[in-house]
């Protein structure tokens, strides 16, 4: 007898709202979007009574070392072992380069290769979506999700046309590292989900009034509505985080009609206190890619914004960007016209997400003040 736990909302047609996925559609040709082939699902009731496995985020190079130490393995329900017997994939290899192909060529075939796990676990049929696990002193931890198999095709060409397709080379199995989705888990847990089709129709109507949604008002959730919601969130209530050092009294957060105006208003509030108290105050914009709130265009509009966090090691801040958003490094290249910049490493950790220690430095290119020499380059390492 099977005990089936349904997706939340299955009874009233709102199940799609209880699923967060890496993408609504996937490229299976280069650039292959294997690293977006994941989903978070809210169930109507817990499927497991004995607890859950923790998620651990780590860079691919660290996963390679753990695999060398034979601490990486995989569990799944293979189609090969009926009726649905759990299969244990013994400690398996994880690599970048393989006998048939080097990493430099492989990376070009994938979008977001920095969160791609290429492994040789004995996955078997129907094992897509199974966990890639790390053996830890506290028990297994999820470090990724198995996706599929990576093959390189070979063809014979003549006059620009394919004349013959040769047997493809199987390189490795593919997986997506937990860094690709772990940062979205807390937001998904806290999200307020519409409970009925009527509420969905109301949402579609409101978004249509704002000229953000042009699809049917039918109470269903699809790609068009997802895009409209993201557009609304982009315009309303985006998290703009700023830090001010050496303030003399509390400064209330300042809002604005746009992201650029919000940044401008907060900078002005800091400058007013600095002038009032006669103190130097350093203010900088934090992690612009957190919820993809701040773009290079936003920063470029604020002339007085001279300090921006250009690196953050926490996995939840979108530092590497995605197919729709530039990485922070790309943002930096777009707006970097001044000589003063701020780099900050972040070593925040919690039970589900573990950021890697970062390296930061402050480079101040300023003239002497009152005969005093400018500060030298200050560099620091943040250790967890």
Could you list some keywords that capture this structure?
7-stranded antiparallel sheet; 14 strands; 384 residues; 3-stranded antiparallel sheet
Give a description of the structure.
The chain is α+β, with helices and mostly antiparallel strands. The protein folds into three domains: 15-186, no CATH class; 194-235; 242-381, no CATH class. The chain has helices at residues 60-68, 103-108, 185-190, 197-209, 223-235, 259-277, 296-301, 328-335; strands spanning 19-21, 39-41, 72-77, 86-89, 94-95, 116-119, 131-136, 139-158, 161-177, 242-245, 282-285, 341-343, 359-363, 378-381. β7 and β8 (139-158) form a beta hairpin. The longest helix is centred in the C-terminal third of the chain and has 19 residues, at 259-277. The radius of gyration is 25 Å and the shape is globular.
Count of discrete structural domains = 3
N-to-C series of helices and strands: EEHEEEHEEEEHHHEHEHHEEE
Helix content, binned percent: 10-25%
Uncertain ranges: 337-366, 373-384
Distance between the termini: 47 Å
């Amino acid at each position: 007898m099977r005990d089936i736990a349904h997706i939340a909302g299955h009874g009233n047609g709102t199940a799609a709202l209880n699923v967060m996925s890496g993408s609504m559609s996937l490229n299976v040709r280069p650039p292959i979007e294997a690293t977006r082939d994941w989903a978070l699902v809210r169930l109507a009731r817990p499927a497991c009574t004995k607890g859950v496995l923790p998620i651990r985020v780590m860079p691919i190079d660290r996963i390679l070392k753990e695999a060398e130490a034979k601490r990486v393995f995989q569990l799944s329900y293979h189609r090969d072992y009926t009726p649905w017997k759990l299969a244990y994939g013994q400690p398996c290899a994880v690599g970048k380069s393989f006998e048939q192909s080097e990493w430099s060529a492989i990376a070009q075939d994938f979008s977001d290769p920095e969160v791609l796990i290429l492994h040789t676990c004995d996955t078997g049929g129907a094992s897509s979506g199974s966990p890639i696990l790390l053996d830890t002193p506290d028990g297994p931890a999820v470090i990724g999700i198995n996706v599929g198999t990576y093959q390189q095709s070979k063809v014979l060409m003549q006059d620009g046309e394919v004349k013959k397709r040769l047997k493809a080379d199987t390189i490795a199995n593919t997986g997506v590292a937990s860094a690709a989705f772990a940062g979205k888990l807390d937001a998904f847990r806290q999200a307020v989900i519409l409970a009925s089709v009527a509420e969905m129709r109301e949402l579609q109507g409101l978004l249509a009034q704002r000229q953000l949604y042009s699809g049917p008002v039918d109470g269903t959730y699809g790609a068009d509505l997802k895009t409209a919601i993201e557009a609304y969130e982009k315009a309303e209530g985006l998290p703009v985080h700023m830090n001010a050092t050496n303030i003399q009294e509390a400064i209330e957060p300042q809002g604005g009609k746009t992201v650029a105006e919000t940044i401008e208003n907060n900078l002005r509030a800091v400058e007013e206190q600095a002038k009032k108290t006669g103190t130097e105050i350093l203010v900088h914009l934090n992690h612009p890619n957190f919820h993809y709130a701040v773009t290079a265009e936003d920063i470029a509009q604020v002339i007085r914004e001279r300090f921006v966090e250009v690196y953050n090691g926490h996995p939840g801040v979108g530092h590497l960007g995605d197919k729709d958003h530039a990485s922070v490094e790309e943002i930096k290249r777009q707006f970097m016209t001044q000589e003063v910049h701020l780099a900050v490493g972040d070593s925040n950790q919690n039970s589900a997400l573990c950021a890697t220690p970062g390296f930061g430095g402050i480079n101040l290119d300023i003239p002497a003040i009152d005969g005093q020499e400018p500060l030298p380059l200050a560099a620091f390492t943040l250790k967890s």
